[in-house]
Write a structure and sequence with these properties.
With 122 residues, the chain is mostly helical. It has 5 helices and no strands.
Length: 122
């Protein structure tokens, strides 16, 4: 997704310090978008930081949009991990159904005792 130059110019004051934190070698003059020229600014950042244009734009995009792309990536990764775990749990349940029943009963019994004790103290 291309970087929105107008949004960057509008929100620059809010995100400038985070850019400075990420690339500590930048001087105050490096953090000025002269005349709203974002291309010139990005080229300067690339030269000063040694980072690729894509990396810089991706980081700025994340700052501008609250990490929406990162959140999407985490959601996809978490969904994949949840799917893996549920498959493993299903395999375990098919291999050892008796252990699953005993574990469920034990968890239920312990939970019941804990809730009963908690209600009794009131």
């Amino acid at each position: 997704m291309p970087l929105d130059a107008e949004r960057l110019n509008t929100q620059w004051k809010e995100i400038r310090d985070r850019v400075k934190e990420r690339w500590t070698r930048l001087e105050p003059d490096d953090l000025i978008i002269h005349g709203g020229n974002v291309e010139q600014f990005l080229n300067r950042l690339q030269k000063k930081t040694g980072e690729s244009q894509e990396t810089i734009e991706s980081y700025l995009h994340e700052l501008l949009y609250g990490g929406a792309m990162a959140m999407h990536r985490y959601r996809v990764e978490a969904g994949g991990r949840l799917h893996e775990v549920s498959q493993q749990a299903g395999k375990l349940a098919r291999r050892n159904p008796g252990e699953l029943v005993l574990a469920s009963l034990a968890i239920g019994l312990v939970s019941g005792v804990v809730v009963g004790l908690a209600l009794r103290r009131r």
